[in-house]
């Protein structure tokens, strides 16, 4: 079997996480996974959305966007069309949910952190890269808050990282790029913590339904891939 | 363990599928799962969306809505707010994807079938009920097309049905109602075919991450539940 | 003369009003007039819109919607299009106005009741059916408020019900269904109280202008029809 | 009885219809009824909306707007708010329907005339003034088309004009201004043809329901008022 | 050289400023420059936008609109399209900025004045006419506030007026009408104060780039034209 | 005088233009002027907007956006708000106009090039940086088209670059950063060609009006600054 990218089935693309790239944001990270490139910024605001007011807890939320020419053919600018697509909304809900899963919202106090994940270049796996990069931005923003003495301790309880896997010509493979993703029979995103716990599993049959055994094979690859991503997060944050 | 509904962990709610309820639609089904009630209609149109024109294949798509007072407290009417929520869009994308997974789009010819899933009463599991009920509406609409001689054979290759499962106080349980869903630690939706294949798996940790073993326990329950739903679909369609 | 429905000129369609159909709403009624079917729910909220704050009075308002496949050919979902049509807005303004005409807003206190009228099946006369059914939902919601001790007395001063009439091949006929409505020369909606007073009259010439005599003939039919509808409302509400 | 305006019950306000006020429009009329002032323009376009294409008939439609400071306190600009209110849509639908009622759409050929009715100053009765003024603009636009040889004969079969009447302290009065309208018990708009036929009747009880006798009294006043308006239309169009 | 209008290069069109034309607005002016006609109203409101609250200063802002048939061919109604064009927004930002440049916002107290500039007829130069006319409306509104004792002194520090100039067949000309504007090589708008100071300069090359010398020639013409407009403003306001 | 940035009055910020940064776009350039950073991409499409069809000419247009955290405090995402601000629309109109001024649209054939200018980091002068960077992206896209043989010759007739100048504490200074811009008395943007011609001049008095002499002093600085920017464009494009 030769997957289009020529990588071994269990090999991630070249990954880099560059922390602190934003002049203004309290935390930021530019993540590259192969030709996918996402700028993640974390913005701190000293209040919470209306539905949480007065409850002594914080909030973490995310917004996702793609520059019109991040893709092979230019897409419409969502601001010009006047609304975000269903896909955009689905992705930003996933990112927010994934990060809240490892955050102690009580420990934040009444503050909101908004993660903006903007895709500068897209080559598959942008939602997973957004989660992995946003964790770094969030970590750095919390560190900033601690340094500014607006938070007493780090509200992040664990890492969270994500990777997509798929079945390509019958073989489970890790970290699909766009060419692979568009031809995979099954495609699954896994969001996992540093302890190996599952935060989100999203598997979709593109053609034939998939079996329990296939789901487990993909999960095993994902576990392998996120372990590497978690190491990169630690390095990017100087966590030794 | 006593789950709020008092049901055994592997027991579905009372299910009913009433076919042919719509005066106008080519196919329809009113599905009730406990107090959740969804009206599913299938509308046939003799053309395909622009991105498919001239390719000799059909399209199946879905729209989802909830009446403002389907829920405990009245929600905003999406038509009045001027846009569909991210949740609505995510659900209708899931319904469409699930039905297309068991449809032979080539066999349809250049026709579109739109499934409208409108929640008249909500008590948890509305997206799963929508998929299960929409399959019946779609089957009936295809039968109508065959009877009208606009399709030569049945384009549905298999059944598809969905059920949610969750971990409630440490115990995996089947078919969450709203009270259970809002307190479950983990919540997963499974979309499965008549052959037991997986079409979609969506698992989300609401609190603590979940383990592979827990995912498999939920999958086992889902397999049990969908088997029953598939029997109900056959009965509703008079498939013996 | 044989009108398309075969009914005598002064005969209503088969009418039924089913109260209390909604699991969640404080008041509800499913009204059927022939093949027209409207689900009416009344939702109580303990505050008034900004323009009424601090004036010690309540508010009654309505929203109207039609399921996409309530009609012969599927219509666009207004939530997906991003706005309500002019027709929808005109109808919901009429429903709200009609109900306020028989409500003692002062006696309500600073509360709002929203009537949602959602057409499950359309065969002409949906706006009139909405008014007639919404009155029952409103009455039941007020009773609920009295039982909860948030209102001291019933704020409804009278019944209100509505019916459409038209001139079909020169003959005034009562309660047009869709087939009749689309061919009527003149079409008029009458909203009347239990005392026989007029709340709204909306007459429209579809072809030739109509005369004063014709307007009066239609009014006479409407008086006859609404008298029957008022009896059904009393029965539905158990008012003897 | 002294109505606020001091006018006799059956007296119109000072009326003027100034034809040809627009530099660009094919037909136009500035109508003043007391302090209500509406600029009506008719724009001719050589095609019809999609739903009429290829049927060999024309279309007449209307749009209505109000300058933000036409009213006592400044209203929001609808273009800035991003949508037209329900009231605006209801009015423009009424204007279009009224004019189509006296137009032979077949005789127009495949052309569309759009009537823009923009309220420069509002003091009650803007929808009625719009109809009366728009008829003049439409007549002049049709004359322009005949002169340009794009229409063989005048497609207008009759005049149409409108006036509001109301019951003020128990007395039926003609042509309500804003001060009268806001205190009237009942308020009715009548759209009538040159032959005295009724095109639209819209009666609304603002407080107590009204009776058949009251409706007839208002209709009698309207007949008197529109007769005068029709004379003014003839003069404005030089019809002798 | 014969410019299309036949005017001498340094000649304004026929100008008139009619103050006090609005029945309701606190200040108003109908300005005509040739066939361009703009109704300017100033509306006073006793509060400021959120970003200025509690700062003890006022705000002056503008909105701009064009009636659909103000132009040669009918344009879409922005309220119907659901948004204001980029051009509209650019113009209303310019009008607001120009008026604020000569207003002592501190002296206003916490009040907002909104200038509505609605183009009844367009023949070029509508943004400049709007500024010139809006100044008169604003002056009159401030006088009204002083008379009502809500302002102690006149917050306007100077006049402001605007005119467009352009290069037509190589010759700098003043006050372009539509025919001239659409063929000019360069087009520039100048907003100037009574003291001859510049508030805004906006020069645009339509074809070939323009030179510094050409810019200065246009500025000279503008100085000449605005001097005349300032005299008309004084007359319209009765400033002797 | 010491301007906040410490630069000499006629000194640009550190400028860099990095060509070819986008994996997908036919032309691209990342421009940095100090801490302002704009990603410019040029996308080629083989058709023109409806208003140009069949005229044998091309079109160049621009869209502008700012990442939410490009600024000191996070701004709303325009896609989420559902519309582009007036500022955004004004800027993208300016960019498009500036580039069209040096493009031979006839020489393009019926093709459209869309320049997307997305601000990754904002520190003043983003619209000017966008124009300067977009020229490089456009040049590279045209070269791509020539290489692909879809254009016979280079449609760009000249360079275009832009810079802002302002009067800071009475002294004219070049290339304002955000801190300087927010305190400048007058602020002007100049768009100039390689031949020194003016394409756009936009001067605005922030406080006191400015004089002709001041306008000329700013223009002189701009001429100096754009000369340097043009050299950088040539280097970035390898034009020797």
From TrEMBL, chains A, B, C, D, E, F:
Gene Ontology MF term list: 3'-5'-RNA exonuclease activity; tRNA binding; tRNA nucleotidyltransferase activity
Pfam family, one: RNase_PH
Domain Exoribonuclease phosphorolytic: 12-141, 160-223
Enzyme class, broadest EC rank: transferase
Binding site for phosphate: 87, 125-127
Gene Ontology biological process terms from the UniProt entry: rRNA 3'-end processing; rRNA catabolic process; tRNA processing
Coiled coil regions in record: none
SUPFAM superfamilies per record: Ribonuclease PH domain 2-like, Ribosomal protein S5 domain 2-like
UniProt keywords, alphabetically: Nucleotidyltransferase, RNA-binding, rRNA processing, Transferase, tRNA processing, tRNA-binding
Reaction catalysis annotation: tRNA(n+1) + phosphate = tRNA(n) + a ribonucleoside 5'-diphosphate
Enzyme Commission numbers on file: 2.7.7.56
Function field: Phosphorolytic 3'-5' exoribonuclease that plays an important role in tRNA 3'-end maturation. Removes nucleotide residues following the 3'-CCA terminus of tRNAs; can also add nucleotides to the ends of RNA molecules by using nucleoside diphosphates as substrates, but this may not be physiologically important. Probably plays a role in initiation of 16S rRNA degradation (leading to ribosome degradation) during starvation.
PANTHER family in the cross-refs: EXOSOME COMPLEX COMPONENT, EXOSOME COMPLEX COMPONENT RRP41
Subunit structure, interactors included: Homohexameric ring arranged as a trimer of dimers.
Homology family: Belongs to the RNase PH family.
Name the record gives this protein: Ribonuclease PH
Taxonomic lineage: Bacteria, Pseudomonadati, Pseudomonadota, Alphaproteobacteria, Acetobacterales
């Amino acid at each position: 079997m030769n997957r289009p990218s020529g990588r071994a089935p269990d090999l991630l693309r070249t990954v880099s996480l560059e922390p602190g790239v934003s002049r203004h944001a309290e935390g930021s990270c530019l993540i590259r996974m192969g030709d996918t490139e996402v700028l993640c910024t974390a913005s701190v605001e000293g209040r919470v959305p209306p539905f949480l007011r007065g409850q002594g807890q914080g909030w973490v939320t995310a917004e996702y966007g793609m520059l019109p020419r991040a893709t092979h053919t230019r897409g419409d600018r969502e601001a010009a069309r006047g609304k975000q697509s269903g896909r955009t909304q689905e992705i930003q809900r996933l990112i927010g949910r994934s990060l809240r899963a490892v955050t102690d919202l009580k420990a934040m106090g009444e503050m909101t952190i908004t993660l903006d994940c903007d895709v500068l270049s897209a080559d598959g796996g942008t939602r997973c890269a957004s989660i992995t990069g946003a964790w770094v931005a969030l970590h750095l923003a919390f560190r900033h808050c601690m340094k500014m003495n607006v938070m007493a301790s780090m509200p992040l309880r664990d890492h969270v990282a994500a990777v997509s896997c798929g079945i390509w010509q019958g073989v489970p493979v890790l970290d699909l790029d766009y060419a692979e993703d568009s031809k995979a029979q099954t495609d699954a995103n896994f969001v996992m913590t540093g302890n190996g716990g599952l935060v989100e599993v999203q598997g979709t049959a593109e053609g034939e339904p998939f079996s329990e055994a296939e789901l487990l094979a993909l999960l095993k690859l994902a576990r392998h891939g996120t372990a590497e991503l978690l190491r990169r997060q630690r390095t990017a944050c100087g966590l030794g």
